[in-house]
Write a structure and sequence with these properties.
Number of helices: 12
Distance between the termini: 43 Å
Shape: globular
CATH topology of the largest domain: Spore Coat Polysaccharide Biosynthesis Protein SpsA, Chain A
Number of domains: 2
CATH architecture of the largest domain: Alpha-Beta Complex
Strand content: 15-25%
Length: 299
């Protein structure tokens, strides 16, 4: 769990972890250099429960969520890894159901449902007798994952530890780091299952990275573009690029912001000359396409 100035919320998250029906866990809390009283608050939790460990992000990990998570990955001792945010609530059966499902199936991860909330009063737990399989997630449906139809958020997945032997978050990214890493993992051949169980509750507020991105934060926008280029390069290595990816990636941001994406597409070895001409044309008319899309969605 990465944390940054969430002293007013983190205890609720820790309480939901303590209340897990599966008790054999460790929780590594990596502080990204906050200046509130998080460390002071956590001292009581550390004293009463040795399964919690509080650490400062080390200088060899870049500031930000990805750097903190990478540090946690390197220190984790368990066979399975899950990332929790420091302002959310975890379903009591989260660890129990995910670990049991991973043990009973030859897969690299399990993906479950989440529900957004604004007040704790809106949270209610459904207790489950079993895990309810939904569908397989692998390179065959990578397009749905990249486009967000099948959203793979960090807080909705448990991973087998071995997945991170050769893969880490790109700690230069300040947004879309999980979108980048998880899709690179799928492109490389890792696979998992989606289950229907709702096992996580994510708090909605205006200070989130996602809200910052949609408010046109320069840092978040650049990270989204950089992550897009990373995924394009991964698709290209596996010869998976095609017209539908050109359409999607050139629709993420404005024309000026999308220039690095166009360059990555034009440098690809898997796209044909005709595909690249289409990419140039679509980039040239991008403002008009976005205007048409806005007009269409208003109807």
């Amino acid at each position: 769990m990465a944390t940054y100035n969430r002293a007013h919320l983190i205890e609720e998250t820790l309480e939901s972890i303590v209340n897990q029906t599966y008790q054999d866990w460790e929780c590594l809390i990596i502080d990204d250099g906050g200046n509130d009283n998080t460390e002071e608050i956590l001292q009581n939790w550390l004293k009463k429960d040795a399964r919690f460990t509080y650490l400062k992000r080390t200088p060899n990990h870049q500031k930000g969520l990805p750097g903190c998570r990478n540090q946690g990955i390197e220190l984790a001792k368990g066979d399975y890894i899950i990332f929790f945010d420091d302002d959310d609530i975890v379903h009591p059966q989260n660890l129990e159901l995910c670990i049991r499902y991973l043990k009973n199936n030859d897969i690299d991860f399990v993906h479950y449902n989440k529900k957004p909330f604004k007040t704790n009063e809106s949270i209610s737990f459904n207790y489950y007798q079993k895990e309810y399989f939904d569908f397989v997630i692998n390179s065959n449906n990578i397009y749905d994952s990249i486009t967000g139809k099948q959203g793979l958020a960090s807080c909705t997945m448990m991973w087998s530890r071995k997945v991170f032997n050769d893969f880490k978050f790109d700690d230069t990214l300040q947004y879309a780091e999980e979108w980048d890493l998880y899709n690179r993992l799928l492109i490389d051949g890792f696979s998992g299952h989606k289950i229907k169980n709702q096992l996580y509750f994510n708090r909605k507020h205006e200070s989130s990275n996602t809200a910052s991105y949609y408010n046109n934060s320069t840092i978040r926008t650049k990270s989204k573009i950089d992550a897009s280029v990373s995924i394009i390069n991964s698709l290209d290595k596996k010869n998976l690029l095609n017209i539908k990816y050109i359409k999607f990636f050139l629709g993420i941001r404005s024309k000026d912001e999308s220039k690095p994406i166009l360059n990555a597409l034009l440098k690809s070895t898997s796209l044909t000359y005709k595909d690249k001409l289409y990419a140039k044309f679509r980039f040239a008319v991008l403002p008009r396409l976005k205007l048409l899309y806005k007009l269409k969605t208003r109807k």
